[in-house]
Design goal:
It is built from eight helices and no strands. It has 185 residues and is mainly alpha-helical. The chain is globular. It folds into two domains: 92 residues, Rna Polymerase Sigma Factor, Chain: A; 85 residues, Winged helix-like DNA-binding domain superfamily/Winged helix DNA-binding domain (Arc Repressor Mutant, subunit A, Orthogonal Bundle). Helix 2 runs antiparallel to helix 3, helix 6 packs across helix 8 and helix 7 crosses helix 8.
Amino acid sequence: MELWQRAQAGEADAFRQLADGVWPLLYRSLLPYVGDREATEDLAQEALLQAWRRLPSFRGDSRVETWIVSIGFNLARNERRRHRADLCENWSEEGGPSAEEVVVEHEHWASVAQAVANLPPLWRVALLLVAREGLTYEETARALSCRPSTLRNWVHRARQSLRRDLGTGAPGRGSAPRKVVPDCE
């Protein structure tokens, strides 16, 4: 019986072991997205708490680690949305960009965030670890327990999907695309 199955059966100690094992991946995955160590720790703790509460509904269709990291990213995205809403409510016209520029920029990044959120979970995690956190393919492959060639495929497909979803097309075709995710290969 796998650790998550034992935890699902109610063994709190099994979940503690699972949480201890997934913590480094969860933290490293969220930190570049959140940008603040303390906030990342809080979100990672909340992700583990939600994973514990939702564990009875986990079916094992994906790796439990990926499922928990996805919970963390969903929490981080929700927190970012709340923060942006607070900034908009407190908007001041004194200096800085115009309200129209802020709205356009916000819409662009909201589109990017939505496109990233629409990626399959493994592609999303792989892309964020490589492109945002700067881990090598080998480090990321180890963290996700896959072969580097598989990871390269996920990152490549994630980038293709983002280009398609954001209307940037393929590089070399038409006008130069707006760079959304840096190439880290």
